[in-house]
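#struct-queue
[09:14] JT: dropping the first one here, sequence first, then the structure tokens:
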Amino acid sequence: MPQLRVALAQANPTVGDLSGNAELVVRWTKHAAAQGAHLVAFPELFLTGYPVEDLSLRPSFVDASRATVEALAVQLAAEGCERQVVVVGYLDRRSGAAESLGTPRSSPQNCAAVIYNGEVLMHYAKHHLPNYGVFDEARYFVAGNEPCTFRLHGVDVTLGICEDLWQRGGPEQWAREAQAGLFLVINGSPYERNKDDLRLQLVSQRARHAGATLAYVNMVGGQDELVFDGDSLVVDSGGALLARAPQFEEGLLLLDAELPSASGTGATIEVGSGPLPPYEGLAPAVAPRLDELAEVYGAIVTGLKDYVLKNGFGSVVLGLSGGIDSALTAALACDALGAERVHGISMPSEYSSPHSVADAEDLARRTGLNYRSVPINPIVEAVHGQVSVSGLAEENLQARARGLALMALSNSEGHLVLATGNKSELAVGYTTLYGDAVGGFAPLKDVPKTLVWELATWRNEAARSAGAVEPIPASSIEKPPSAELRPGQLDSDSLPPYDTLDDILDDYVEADRSATDLVAEGFDAETVNKVLAMVDHAEYKRRQYPPGPKVTSRAFGRDRRLPITNRWREQG
């Protein structure tokens, strides 16, 4: 059987940086060529970054993508990679398409280019366009309807792009009809919790249906709310795992595959000579998968790091209250950026307990981040001197004084402000606009409160296992949560226990269960009605909250979109 050395380049592009992404293609291809790879594959829309959203509707951006892929082909040959076949995702357009209402302007297409010997030999346009969850591809792209199979060293290779794997028909069937030896799928598949290794199950199933070895290369890195976890893999035609890349790490997954000789008539181009002389293959690598909490933590670190660095910030600043949310956010920031780039600000008020201030100081010592104290009483008193406030307005004034201090430091010193609120608080509106909701990024935006505690405990256990200092003070994990905006205040004064709250929120927010459904499941009707009303009323706050990395199956933002002006209310 013919052999091919396949390299899957699990790399991290930046949206809009066409020249920088092209340089990544050259660098990783040269690395693959040095290791004897015959075929090098890059993820979906790699040259433009993914997702490009409405950039796809700008003809100038499409033109720049088309020019970049042509120039890349020439550069690869000039850099000594003319004998490697490179498959890379880029943005193109359907030629000759007339403008019409109901189709994206200029008919952009999500494409893969096949590059060899200084030329773009052929391209493939994505056939299945997802239009659910975080995906709006029917808005941005025109679907392709033509197969793409080429012959490389005696092996037929059929291409697919991401959603083409998740839907039956199209590329999977084309690979089968072409009797392809390799079904190569390039992907921009975001991470989410509790997929239960659905990706491997799906790839194995599609490989069996196609009757071909299936190579799946996925993007890695963060792009706004989305995090791509890599986890590239190869399975044989029977669905057995051959090789797998680590999660959340850039790198090459190399595999020597013995593949069936080309016998079909599906290939339209033959690349290179016939089958290669037999050679000794590399031992395949199968990276172990992370456990569930390590995955979630890694996703947040990846999303935070890339948001900060890709947007040109050198450091971050956040409020340190001594509570669990700010403590976990600080630990995540230190792991993502290094403690020297993290600035923690204690902002005590007259209601701040001594142990909370002490816990903030303890966290700063444990992590080594930059720490200072900025008491907010003078700011609060200055406002009191001009505006008479009391009750909830007075509580919110304290939060807004803290937001004012953080934004002043951000503007004067160039830090990005991190909001520290969690998904449970955001769901029920326990955030103060222009107060604790200020910031450019919210690492815990999609992390329910119960998961915050789990992640904090996991992070400390990981440090202990490594013989390192536990970053989060035990008292921050153990003490009852409180905003400390009035004497003796606890979250439990106005919310059900967080395990109950998160259980209700999971059903309502993630699964769209009705109030009647929840009561039928055994939840108290009064509690259900109260929580659901709080969620519905807080939509206007969520619209104004910073972006944060998606880790659950349904995050606030691009995943869950509801009208602000809305009189529909669930009643159980």
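[09:21] JT: and here's the second one, same format:
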Amino acid sequence: MAQIYYAPAASSRDQTSIWLVDAVVVLALAGLVYALALAAARLTAPIAATVPIDLRASALPAYAGLSVARMAAAYVLSLAFSLAYGRLAAAHRRAERVLLPLLDILQSIPILAFMPGVVLALVALFPSTNLGVELAAVILIFTSQAWNLAFGVYQSRITIPRDFNEVATLYRLNGWRRFTRLELPAGVISLVWNSMMSWAGGWFFLIAAEQFTLGDKDFRLPGLGSYLKTAADAGDVGALLLGLAALLAVILLLDQLVWRPLVAWAEKFKLEQTEAAAPPTSWLLTALRRSALVSWLGERAWPALGDALDRLLARWAPGPGAPAPAGPPLLRPGRLLGLAALVALGLAALWGGWSVVRLLRELTLADWADLPAAAGATFLRTLAALGIGLVWTVPAGVAIGMQPRWARRAQPLVQVAASVPATALFPVLLLVLIGLPGGLNLAAVALMLLGTQWYILFNVIAGAQAIPTDLREAGVVYKLRGWRRWRYLILPSLFPYLVTGMITATGGAWNASIVAEFVTFGGEQYQAFGLGSLIAEAANDAAYARLAAGTLVMALLVVCLNRLVWRRLYRLAERRYRLD
């Protein structure tokens, strides 16, 4: 006779725990809605002529909330941009020839090179409310977050195993389903760690985004960045330490509530057949999995929404073998849209080029003569920062990524170290290093290192974490130890991630040169000769011709590096270092 087994009913304690988690989730959603309402009220408030920054400790919670809101808005924009841009560059060879060098230029151009135009244009567009200044801050933070995300999406897309792509083709997945079923899951680990790096980069340039002066005009926003900048300018060490403490508290809170759960969740997207013995864990993710509300959203609401999107987007992106749209190829909607976008970009490029040529006519021969030597000085500092960063980040990143015990301890420390704005610490570095041989040149390399080494470290951690457990166990079976283990297992697995880390670190070094070579502290200016200081001084003096010339020289150097180095390394990663 068959027996019927009943699952044991949840105990009253477990039921109370589930209801408690649901209550916390509902309260968190209500708090998010309330925060969005406050942000909307601030955006529509009348713009103030001057915004005083309160250095009292009581102002820090509100400032921290405003800064996190700007960072979140910039991150959402960066994520959408990077997913579209990276996928387009990886999927189409012709587009890649233009998009990759353009991306390299965009991530290398210092924020001050285009900040004046962005701020003035948006303030003129919204002259009576805070919307223009707030949008300018979000866009400027976006420029410090988006580029490494886009490179990470591109790298994960070109290194998808060939048999996975063949299966997707065999099942005739359209563009949307291929993206959601194959490309996005394959890049989740890289995307999570590069997202952490993007937030760290956003914190790094938060001061520049929230407090910016252009000639006699002062554009500042209340937030942690403006608080730290005001405290540093006033020489108020107590307020500076309070601001850094608030920043550290926000970073640790985000680590526990956002990044640690995402790292633990991303483990399931690893390309392996054997489960890791000690995968990353998160107390918050464990608690959310007990929530009835979250379970309903994951099992009912989200799949229903995904199916609806699949049906809708399948019409726009038909899979292989689908009947071609009627009409001549050149008159199809997708082709017409692409041609229109190409014509618009061409006209914008012509107008921009003519405007720059007219602007550069103001420069003298002496101005042009300073540029090659300045570019060479900054290039040497960039190489020094990149070399020093590689020496320690590769072994440290491998140790953190391959050993969960180290990852649990080191992840928040790395987050904190990468997120603290080096510009807030630079006065201390300046006082310590200014008396040593090399003086300000050594201090500039140190600051550039603080702004670049984390790009390499986070990508190395992502690459080490993505090494399949099968390969690690094979290395143990074949007794790979020491240098042989690095040569045959670790370095080949890390190579695509390392290329992404180095290219984004190089761009970060060029970007950091504007704050490393031109420093204001305690009413005094410290300047090291280089392209970064030339651009920073031109922006400070509203000398647009010198600003444009310095930016063009930097763009030329970046294009040469892309052609000679980065594109070849990406081709090598795609050809030899993929899990096939």
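[09:30] RK: nice, looked through the second one.
[09:31] RK: Residues 365-402 form the longest helix (38 residues).
[09:31] JT: good to know. Residues 1-10 have pLDDT under 50 and may be disordered.
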